[in-house]
User: Which sequence fits this backbone?
């Protein structure tokens, strides 16, 4: 599904398709995808080209990464060689074996200073590291009609219900700001907005429940490796 197709689907649940321009609906869709990603992150795989005498590398996904699933280093071995997450000041890390540690983002918060993966073993020239992680779904640009939406088709109801809530909430805010607003109209809009939000939450809860049962796990939320980060 493209952004244009998802926007058209969202407009089916809006009271008046002419009240909101495409840019507004797109902004709501983007916000909905960002919120959806917090519950259902996307599985990514990134290849990190290693450099001799360098052990620290920026985390793939930057600030958007939610969890690290595996680090295969060096890539292409048979069987694959996976590194284990340990603390950087641990004896395992100091041994120089198949381990890696994590460093947090810099306090300055610039894009070039996000969290890092630190390898315990010094890489060789030409080595590649495969990093699998959970991160956000692709966020389309406003007006990017041909952008493919990576939210599964079975879950698009979560996005459309979020857009419906945004539209009703905006109407409520506009009504509250109008000098001639009536109490009845404002109250009704507030109730409709709350109903839309409850419906959105019910949809998300149902999707979480279905995913939890399908995966036979206690939670869909990820964990950072085996040391409880």
Assistant:
């Amino acid at each position: 599904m493209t952004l244009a197709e998802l926007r058209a689907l969202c407009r089916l649940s809006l009271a008046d398709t002419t009240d909101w321009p495409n840019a507004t609906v797109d902004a709501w869709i983007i916000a909905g995808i960002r919120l959806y990603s917090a519950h259902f992150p996307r599985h990514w795989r990134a290849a990190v080209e290693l450099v001799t005498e360098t052990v620290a590398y920026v985390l793939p996904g930057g600030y958007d990464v939610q969890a690290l699933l595996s680090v295969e280093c060096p890539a292409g071995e048979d069987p694959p060689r996976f590194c284990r997450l340990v603390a950087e000041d641990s004896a395992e890390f100091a041994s120089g074996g198949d381990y890696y540690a994590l460093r947090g983002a810099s306090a300055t918060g610039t894009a070039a200073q996000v969290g890092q993966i630190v390898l315990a073993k010094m890489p060789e020239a030409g080595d590649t590291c495969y990093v699998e992680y959970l991160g956000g779904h692709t966020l389309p640009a406003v007006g990017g009609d041909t952008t493919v939406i990576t939210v599964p088709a079975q879950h698009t109801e979560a996005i459309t219900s979020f857009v419906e809530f945004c539209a009703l909430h905006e109407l409520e805010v506009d009504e509250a700001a109008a000098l001639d607003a009536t109490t009845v109209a404002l109250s009704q809009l507030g109730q409709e907005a709350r109903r839309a939000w409850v419906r959105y939450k019910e949809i998300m809860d149902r999707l979480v429940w279905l995913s939890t049962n399908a995966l036979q796990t206690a939670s869909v939320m990820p964990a950072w490796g085996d040391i409880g980060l």
The radius of gyration is 23 Å. The first strand starts at residue 42 and ends at 49. DSSP finds five helices and seven strands in the chain.
